[in-house]
Amino acid sequence: MQTQLIQSEKMSVIGQLTAGIAHEINNPVGFIHGNLDYVEEYTNDLMQLIKLYQTHCPELEPAIAQKSRRLIWNFCRKTWLKSWHRCGWAPIASSISCLR
Length: 100
Hints:
Layout: H1 2-56, H2 61-99
Helix pairs in contact: 1-2
């Protein structure tokens, strides 16, 4: 009887631990998922602006193409990826390192 009680307690603790892990992983994933629409919308707006410049100022196209590549790279590097790392990915990394 006591062995069954101990086994039951162990299973309960494992269930609570699993629920906690799932919760800690789900929060940052929800953050990322919730912001993807904004990232897509902002990127689409930038691409439309770049296409307008290319259409109406063809003589500036090489400079615009170079600047647009740099703009997109900087956007990804400085804004999107850093904010994800700071707000979204850090809790995932922390949760995973605690499991080791």
